[in-house]
């Protein structure tokens, strides 16, 4: 049995036909090799998304959560959340607002209880086994060289680093008290970006010392069911030259990822590495050097707020790159935004859905792309190796039940014939220009 779902601009998620037999020389086949295990797909729980969803009627809001998180629908199984404010928070905040509070006597998650926690609870009601991972965009400002959320670096002082490691664990424990289990900690969102929104620059050497000497031992001592990841890596970017001394691009792997991972003590605490944006340029080097680690993509590149079909096709190519380089999960950025799609500091970005002022819910092209994968590719599926000219446009998976899922994109301006041949299974489909396809073979 072959199920074929097709999405074209203006006609998404439509059943489509296949014809028996091979009718094209451009034939795809499986090599028989299996690669990494897939753990799921998801997005990030941002305050602006929750705020936008409040404009929906209760019925539409329920339909939104049912669509994204119920297993029979899109079935997201991964969720990201910020530790403190991120660039799509309504305001900047953290859980330790009192300066020099080294015992964290004033630690609290009051702000999280207003938006982030209700957002996550709605998802968990529908996907209770969801894997949640958390990362800070900025430490509490008083822990930085400049006491502000945006820009600046960590104060590399023993008492500050010890307190910051405790801050991570206090956050995880506070969420556990709310009935929410965070399974992964990523050390810093985009450590190579000095941004006008909450951010913090780290050198490879400083992050190595923090992981190996403070955060890693603290996580291990806590005995919490918690993984520590080197994430979310966003370079090489030019921002990093300020720390690295203007090193050539080919040396970024050594100056950051390899500086940390080659240290036996720091590496001993790490489960894997998370990449986003410019991190894709070093994922191949990292995976070759450290095949024992796990890898994930942590934030989809978010466009310009126009939610164009062209950007959706670009994201499909990013998915191809990441899965062909060993990631086990793919995580979108904004789960929802208001229709103007603007952050509190003026950056327009894409989202899975937009919500208009009158409460209309609009499903955007990148939602359908995520659904093409997340609906069909089940947890613990294996990435499959493929051959043929269509291999450059195909991501293949085998689900635990044995079904094979082919995700295929035609990014050309012309219709193309796609043929698949494997043992006793042969079929052909005509793929319209600029279209996305799922073939589920069971």
UniProtKB/TrEMBL annotation:
Q: Give the highest taxon in the source lineage.
A: Bacteria
GO terms, molecular function: glucosylceramidase activity
What InterPro entries does the record point to?
GH, GH30_C, Glyco_hydro_30, Glyco_hydro_30_TIM-barrel, Glyco_hydro_b
Key words of the record:
Glycosidase, Hydrolase, Signal
Gene Ontology cellular component terms for the protein in this record? membrane
Q: What taxonomic ancestry is recorded?
A: Bacteria, Bacillati, Bacillota, Clostridia, Eubacteriales
Q: Extract one GO BP annotation from the record.
A: glucosylceramide catabolic process
Where does this protein come from, organism-wise? Answer: Caproicibacterium amylolyticum
Q: Which PANTHER family match?
A: GLUCOSYLCERAMIDASE, LYSOSOMAL ACID GLUCOSYLCERAMIDASE
Assigned protein family: Belongs to the glycosyl hydrolase 30 family.
Q: Where is the Glycosyl hydrolase family 30 beta sandwich domain?
A: 393-439
Q: What is this protein called?
A: Glycoside hydrolase family 30 protein
> Any idea where the Glycosyl hydrolase family 30 TIM-barrel domain is?
38-377
Pfam family for this entry, one: Glyco_hydro_30C
User: Signal peptide location in the record?
Assistant: none
